[in-house]
């Protein structure tokens, strides 16, 4: 809203209320509450007009609120001017016109525009009947009928001395016609409410508070007022205050709507990382106050758009009552929202920006996740390739050097036997050469076993762990180990956990005994090695545990080390196993 | 002295086969050779050795499988004494050696005519 319009609206409201107070000053003491009540109600609609203009510049709601405010106060100003013409015009417009404007406001809610020709007709008929009956009644109204004797200016439209029956009859007919039209207006408002969805429905909530209040006020101060025998104070000072409900509810809803931008931020912050488009849609819909919000994505084959529930969405020519905004930076994502939200272009823009950020975030996260998966897979492949290479090396040693050393050692044995009789010295020499060859063979076997345990390839985990336990210098019990075979990478990982753990027990733990338990559980293999030694082992100390944790992680598993000082060490590797 | 039994050496390593043949023939045995599991079962049928010196690591199958096939020879045909061998140690094979129908395991570097005779003698007793 421009500053000039704002200044004009504020000046107009101040002038209207100022004139009202000036024209009725000094009020007779019994009228004072009534004057204050009128001033407050009139001013409240003008303030609501300013709020509506601020909130929805594109809507005519602000104009209608302002019109109601002026139509409410101006007649009283005119009446109080004590000028016959102004008095007559004031009397003509006193009650009825602001009421027609209220009906107009209700039917045009929230865009300020009437929805159909029929509704235009209803509003025009409402204004017209009020003017017609008012003018007609005024022709027969002698101010004296209202107990307004010499104090009042003359009714310039009065015919003769007037006619109380004609004035009364016209007034009654006017009231009935007004009731019928009010009924139609209320019915139409209910129909609007029922057909509204999403944001538009929420935007109608203030109206649902206003309409019954206005209806109640009309009924009580109008024809039915007589039934209740209200005092003038109640009837003219307190009941009109019911009309305050309209501006009050609207202003409150405006203040709450101002927090929608903040709600948007909260909604995005609250979204967990990598939230699905469905969750994103829900969060945006909540923040926007439009339950019908759809987040739709262009199909890769170009065959239209699908929303998060898989429904086809018409984006090029949206359905009636729907509007579309593209989500910037996304690959063909759009938001389809309740058309009523056109009144809140800033909020829609913010929502699209929030959606764009969230989708971008999800995309980046998916990218990082994919890269992480690639890194994980390549790490596992590297470890597996390393294992395969070690197996090959062990096999090569076995087939090559070990084989030759065996033959050599056998040949030396035979040579020694033959030489022993003829040349004992040569025999001793060959004997010592044979001993060297056998030691070389033993060392080579140990080397090969360190590179890759043949027993693991040959017999699987059970045999290999048994062999480890037998070789361990610390007494080692195997409480459980599954007999079956597992994928080579998993067997190798489990084997190295036990091997490294037992080596650590021997080197650092000063333990009396160790225990190995391997259990096959659904989807995983759990390897546990515990000892009764000194404890205090920590994976981050750069020990073999760090490398072991890496090794377990390469198989997608987790290594847990529980090693309180003085209470032994418990190592548990939890390895996923298909 | 009893006539020396025929020995079937099953090993894909030519050098070892040649050497073992020399050693065992010198010790008085008749020797036949096979380089693969398939050749071994065929030779066992034709040669009918008293003892098969069976390398565990073979190119087409492994010694355990060949030992099973030899043990499952038709009834009435006395199955040969099967001695598994390897450049590796027995413990590298865990419980597999004990579980196989072979008479025992002899590390290759301890091969001698005397060692094989002990297996044969154990079988006769």
Strand and helix layout:
The complex is a heterodimer of chains A (578) and B (125).
Chain A: H1 3-23, H2 32-55, H3 61-80, H4 84-93, H5 96-108, H6 117-139, H7 164-195, H8 198-203, H9 205-221, H10 225-228, H11 232-238, H12 245-258, H13 260-270, H14 277-288, E1 294-298, E2 305-307, E3 312-313, E4 322-326, E5 333-338, H15 345-422, H16 424-451, H17 454-459, H18 461-471, E6 476-480, H19 488-509, E7 514-521, E8 524-531, H20 544-554, E9 558-562, E10 569-576
Parallel strand pairs in A: 6-7
Antiparallel strand pairs in A: 1-2, 1-5, 2-3, 4-5, 7-8, 8-10, 9-10
Helix pairs in contact in A: 1-2, 1-3, 2-3, 2-11, 2-12, 3-4, 3-5, 4-6, 5-6, 6-7, 9-12, 13-14, 13-15, 14-15, 15-16, 18-19, 19-20
Chain B: E1 6-10, H1 14-26, E2 30-34, H2 37-47, E3 51-55, H3 63-71, E4 81-86, H4 96-99, E5 104-107, H5 113-124
Parallel strand pairs in B: 1-2, 1-3, 3-4, 4-5
Helix pairs in contact in B: 2-3
What is this structure, in a nutshell?
The complex is a heterodimer of chains A (578) and B (125). Chain A is of the alpha+beta class.
Q: How would you portray this structure in words?
A:
The complex is a heterodimer of chains A (578) and B (125). Chain A is of the alpha+beta class and 578 residues long. Chain A folds into three domains: 3-258, Rhopdopsin 7-helix transmembrane proteins (Up-down Bundle); 275-375, no CATH class; 459-576, Heat Shock Protein 90. Chain A is 64% helix and 10% strand. Chain A has helices spanning 3-23, 32-55, 61-80, 84-93, 96-108, 117-139, 164-195, 198-203, 205-221, 225-228, 232-238, 245-258, 260-270, 277-288, 345-422, 424-451, 454-459, 461-471, 488-509, 544-554, and strands at 294-298, 305-307, 312-313, 322-326, 333-338, 476-480, 514-521, 524-531, 558-562, 569-576. Chain A has a five-stranded antiparallel sheet. A five-stranded mixed sheet of chain A has the order 6-7-8-10-9. In chain A, a hairpin with a 6-residue loop joins strand 1 (294-298) and strand 2. In chain A, helix 1 (3-23) runs antiparallel to helix 2 (32-55), helix 6 (117-139) packs antiparallel against helix 7 (164-195) and helix 9 runs antiparallel to helix 12. The two termini of chain A are 66 Å apart. The two termini of chain B are 16 Å apart. In chain B, strand 3, helix 3 (63-71) and strand 4 form a beta-alpha-beta unit. By secondary structure, chain B is of the alpha/beta class. In chain B, strands 2-1-3-4-5 form a five-stranded parallel sheet, with helices on both faces. Helices cover 39% and strands 20% of the residues of chain B. Chain B has helices at residues 14-26, 37-47, 63-71, 96-99, 113-124, and strands at residues 6-10, 30-34, 51-55, 81-86, 104-107. Chain B has a single domain, classed as Response regulator (Rossmann fold).
């Amino acid at each position: 809203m421009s500053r000039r319009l704002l200044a004009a609206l504020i000046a107009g409201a101040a002038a209207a209320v100022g004139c009202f107070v000036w024209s009725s000053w000094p009020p007779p003491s019994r009228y004072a509450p009534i004057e204050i009540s009128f001033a407050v109600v009139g001013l409240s609609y003008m303030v609501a007009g300013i709020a509506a203009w601020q909130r929805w510049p594109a809507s005519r709601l602000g104009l209608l609120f302002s019109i109601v405010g002026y139509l409410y106060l101006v007649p009283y100003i005119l009446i109080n001017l004590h000028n016959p013409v102004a008095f007559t015009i004031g009397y003509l417009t006193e009650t009825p016109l602001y009421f027609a404007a209220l009906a107009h406001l209700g039917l045009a809610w929230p865009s300020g525009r009437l929805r159909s020709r029929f509704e235009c007709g209803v509003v025009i008929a409402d204004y017209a009947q009020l003017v017609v009956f008012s003018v007609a009644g005024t022709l027969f109204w002698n101010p004296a009928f209202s107990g307004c004797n010499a104090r009042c200016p003359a009714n310039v439209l009065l015919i003769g001395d007037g006619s109380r029956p004609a004035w009364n009859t016209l007034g009654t007919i006017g009231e009935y016609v007004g009731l019928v039209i009010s009924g139609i207006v209320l019915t139409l408002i209910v129909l609007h409410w029922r057909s509204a969805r999403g944001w538009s429905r929420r935007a109608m909530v203030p109206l649902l508070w206003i309409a019954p209040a206005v209806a109640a006020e009309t009924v009580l101060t109008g024809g039915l007022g007589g039934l209740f025998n209200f005092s003038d104070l109640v009837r003219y000072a307190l009941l009109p205050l019911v009309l305050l409900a309209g501006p009050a509810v609207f202003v409150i809803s405006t203040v709450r709507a101002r927090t929608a931008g903040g709600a948007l931020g909260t909604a995005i912050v609250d979204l967990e990382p990598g939230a699905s488009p469905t969750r994103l849609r829900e969060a945006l819909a909540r923040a926007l106050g439009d339950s019908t919000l759809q987040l739709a994505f262009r199909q890769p084959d170009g065959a239209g758009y699908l929303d998060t529930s898989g429904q086809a969405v018409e984006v090029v020519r949206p359905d009636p009552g729907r509007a579309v905004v593209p989500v910037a930076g996304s690959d063909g994502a759009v938001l389809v929202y309740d058309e009523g939200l056109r009144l809140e272009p800033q909020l829609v823009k913010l929502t699209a920006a929030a959606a764009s950020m969230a989708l971008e975030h999800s995309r980046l996260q998916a990218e990082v996740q994919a890269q992480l998966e690639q890194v994980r897979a390549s790490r596992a492949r590297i470890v597996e390739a390393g294992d395969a290479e070690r197996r090959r090396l062990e096999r090569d040693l076995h087939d090559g050097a070990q084989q030759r050393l065996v033959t050599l050692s056998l040949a030396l044995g035979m040579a020694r036997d033959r030489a022993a009789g003829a040349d004992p010295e040569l025999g001793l020499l060959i004997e010592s050469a044979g001993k060297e060859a056998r030691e070389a063979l033993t060392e080579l076997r140990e080397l090969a076993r360190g590179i890759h345990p043949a027993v693991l390839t040959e017999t699987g985990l059970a045999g290999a762990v048994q062999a480890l336990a037998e070789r361990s210098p610390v007494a080692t019990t195997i409480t459980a180990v599954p007999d079956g075979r597992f994928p080579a990478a998993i067997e190798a990982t489990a084997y190295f956990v036990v091997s490294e753990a037992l080596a650590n027990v021997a080197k650092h733990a000063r333990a009396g005994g160790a225990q190995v338990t391997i259990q096959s559980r659904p989807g995983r293999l759990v390897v546990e090695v515990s000892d009764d030694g000194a404890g205090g082992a920590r994976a981050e100390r750069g020990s073999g545990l760090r490398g072991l944790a890496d090794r377990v992680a390469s198989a997608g598993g987790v290594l847990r080390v529980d090693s309180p000082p003085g209470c032994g060490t418990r190592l548990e590797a939890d390895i996923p196993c298909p | 002295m009893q006539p020396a039994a025929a020995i079937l050496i099953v090993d894909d390593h030519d050098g070892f086969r040649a050497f073992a043949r020399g050693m065992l023939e010198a010790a008085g045995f008749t020797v036949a050779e096979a380089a693969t599991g398939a050749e071994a079962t065929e030779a066992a049928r034709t040669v009918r050795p008293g003892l098969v010196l069976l390398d565990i690591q073979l190119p087409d199958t492994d010694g355990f499988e060949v030992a099973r096939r030899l043990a499952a020879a038709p009834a009435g045909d006395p199955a040969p004494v099967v001695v598994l061998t390897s450049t590796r140690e027995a413990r590298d094979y865990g419980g597999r050696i004990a579980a196989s129908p072979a008479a025992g395991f002899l590390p290759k570097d301890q091969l001698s005519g005397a060692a094989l005779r002990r297996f044969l003698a154990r079988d006769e007793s």
